[in-house]
Design a protein that fits this description.
Shape: globular
Number of helices: 9
Radius of gyration: 18 Å
CATH topology: TIM Barrel
CATH superfamily: Dihydropteroate synthase-like
Helix content: 25-40%
Largest sheet: 8 strands, parallel, barrel
Strand content: 5-15%
Number of domains: 1
Length: about 280
């Protein structure tokens, strides 16, 4: 069964929970709660990466490395130190990754598809794991970034090229993860195509992480029956369906905001698919 990565957005403008955990103590308390609910890894980010150009996204505001470090380092020190959590730092800045790894993080989550070799070099120097998330540009959901002839094959090939760059920077192959980047530089139906073909990604030989949680494609596939504007909090059922699909595809990890519900989902699917104890 896959690992469950819980999300902690120490930002004012995350698409899902912007501002709720910008305060350091609120973020630490949230991380503690996610661990109690069954998270295996805590993915901490100090700068939103929501893509512009999709139906419900307005992009994100870039912050300085200094501000990003000030947001995430005190949180990581507490979570990785006193709580001994496995922590991933969601960043595209080498300075932030270096500070976060020094504070106790052990994974770098790169949402820009290894565009900056210095980020991988920082991870390699610290002996950290590295997530390569597929992306084009800043994730804008519009041409030319969404121009694919075969979205599954092209995403997989671009991920493999990025993984080779990360490995060349010194990160061992066994420490590299691939993430298809659902919703980043992809329309709803391109995201659906990737989900339908998830089984191709583990065959690459890399571990696979998928993050469908609360993303706008869910509202596009299942619009609000009342006709009101959909919110991220209204996407729990669709997230659960997508996570169940990821589990069935045998990915190695899923990234989610609603850890308690997804932990229950994963545990029940595990019980349903493994031989029952004492069964004839």
């Amino acid at each position: 069964m896959p690992e469950l990565w819980g999300v902690i957005n120490v930002t004012p403008d995350s698409f899902s929970d912007g501002g709720r955990f910008l305060d350091t103590q609120a973020a630490i308390a949230h991380g503690k709660r996610l661990l109690e609910e069954g998270a295996d890894v805590l993915d901490v980010g100090g700068e939103s990466s929501r893509p512009a150009g999709n139906t419900y996204g307005a992009g994100f505001t870039t912050v300085s490395a200094t501000e990003e470090i000030a947001r995430v380092v005190p949180v990581i020190e507490q979570l990785a130190g006193e709580l001994r959590a496995r922590v991933s730092i969601d960043t595209v800045k080498p300075e932030v990754a270096e500070a976060a790894l020094g504070a106790g993080a052990s994974i770098v989550n790169d949402v820009r598809c290894a565009q900056n070799p210095a980020l991988a070099e920082v991870a390699a120097a610290a002996g950290a794991e590295y997530v390569v998330m597929h992306n084009r540009g800043h994730g804008e959901v519009r041409p030319p970034h969404t121009s694919y002839e075969d979205v599954v094959s092209e995403v997989l090939e671009e991920l493999l090229e990025a993984a080779r760059r990360v490995e060349a920077a010194g990160v061992p192959r066994a420490s590299i993860w691939l993430d298809p980047g659902l919703g980043f530089a992809k329309t709803t139906w391109q995201t659906v195509a990737l989900l339908r073909s998830l089984g191709r990604f583990p065959k690459s030989g890399y571990r696979v992480l998928v993050g469908p949680s609360r993303k706008s494609f869910i509202s596009e596939l299942a619009p609000n029956p009342s006709g009101g504007a959909p919110s991220a909090d209204d996407r729990l059922g669709g997230t659960a369906a997508a996570v169940a699909h990821c589990v069935a595809a045998r990915v190695d990890a899923v990234r989610a905001h609603d850890v308690r519900v997804m932990r229950q989902l994963i545990d029940v699917m595990n019980a349903l698919t493994k031989p029952a104890e004492g069964a004839p």
